Amino acid sequence: MRATVMHKARDVRIEDVPDAAIRNTTDAVIRITRACICGSDLWPYNGGPNVNGQGMGHEAIGVVEEIGSDVQRIRRGQVVIMPFAYSDGSCLFCDEGLQTACVHGGFFGNGGEAGGAQAEALRIPHADGTLYPLAVGEDDALMPSLLTLSDVMGTGHHAAVTARVRRGGTVAVVGDGAVGLCGVIAAKRLGAEQIILLGRHADRIALAREFGATDVVSVRGMEAVERVRELTGGLGVQSVLECVGTEQAIDTSMGIVRAGGAVGRVGVPHYDVLPGAQPMFYRNVVVAGGPAPVRAYIDELLTDVMEGGIEPGRVFDRTAGLDGVPDGYRAMNEREALKVLIRP
Ligand SMILES: [Zn+2]
Question: What is the sign of the dihedral through the CA atoms of 215, 231, 267 and 299?
Fold first, then answer.
């Protein structure tokens, strides 16, 4: 079968690899019908942590082709969402809705035991716990939005939940990538009254406004902090959704959160030390977040997607086949594309 393999920075290739196959009795194999490229895939692409020859991709929808002998709930032929983390669905963390901490869990497409989803097919560990069956056909018109439930929409929602977004509240979203834009959707959905987007790309800002952003701040650093304070009566916002992960993004987040507020971090941190320990203490600021348990959020978000209440699939602005994946990485890296949808 064909799959996306990253050999080293800037070296992404489509290659023939061994077919995905059942390895454990709790596995399934899915034929990938939709996948995509994530902003976090650009980290190894740009020389970040990189496993030589790693299979890429952690977001997908597919059709179940094979199941292991101990798979009970998932059946052949089902159309399923594959969250970016696999989980057994039965441990204490899965019970708590924190599947990204599952004691038997792990992540797709990061060079670990599980392969990558930018491929024709993929082995799914712990199929019963991991996969989420859908009641739609494999080419349903809602596929782009359904696909975002495998990561970016659930991740934006996690940023909003951990930043304690509340009805009537004030929110800032740091970052105008696909997760930041989904964070705007999530904040609006949870009833925020003021949603300030910190971003610099005109097309993304326009989409953010359609998703519910009420204000936009396009300057950076201290200027951004001052501007957000001006927009909030000098106080800062109650909730900050940090959707980038750079040192500057967390610095800005700590500068714009108000006393008693919360910062929800979903950008993979590129920094080792959290800034602002002293003001964080004296101003009672909560810092939370981490890898989103998107599996737990599908129940809640799926209804809104199916009813058209939210349209996170609008973050996709380009579609490619597997052959177009290497150029998709380039296009996203050069900010020519926001998010690339893949139809293997
Ligand atoms: Zn578990």
Answer: negative
CA within 13 Å, CB half, 167: 0
Give Cβ neighbours of residue 319 (< 8 Å, ≥ 6 apart).
340, 341, 342, 343
Tens of pLDDT along 139-178?
A: 999 999 999 999 999 999 999 999 999 999 999 999 999 9
CA of 259 to the centre of ligand 1 (A): 35
Tens digit of pLDDT for each residue in 298-344?
A: 999 999 999 999 999 999 999 999 999 999 999 999 999 999 999 99
- Between CA 74 and CA 274 the distance in angstroms is 42
Residue 52 pLDDT: 79
pLDDT in tens, 113-125: 899 999 999 999 9
Say what the pLDDT of residue 49 is.
Answer: 77
Distance in angstroms (rounded) separating the CA atoms of residues 320 and 333 = 16
DSSP 3-state assignment of 41? helix
Q: How far is the CA of 312 from the centre of ligand 1 (A)?
A: 27
Query: In the chain, pLDDT over 90 holds for what percent of residues?
Result: 93
For residue 293, the CA-to-ligand 1 centroid distance in Å is 11
Measured in angstroms, how far is the CA atom of residue 79 from the centroid of ligand 1? 22
Of residues 204, 143, 206, the one with CA closest to residue 179: 204
Q: Which residue, among 47, 46, 33, has the nearest Cα to 117 in the 3D structure?
A: 33
Ligand 1 centroid to Cα of residue 97, in Å, is 9
252, 220 contact by CB (below 8 A): yes
pTM recorded for the entire structure: 0.97
| C-alpha 106 – ligand 1 centre gap (Å) | 10
Question: What does the alpha-carbon distance between residue 251 and residue 240 come to, in Å, rounded to a whole number?
Answer: 12
Amino acid in the structure at residue 57: G
Closest by CA position to 43, among listed 84, 13, 14, 12: 12
Structure tokens at 53: 């020859």
Three-state DSSP class for 244?
coil
| CA dist., res. 35 & res. 38, Å (int) | 10
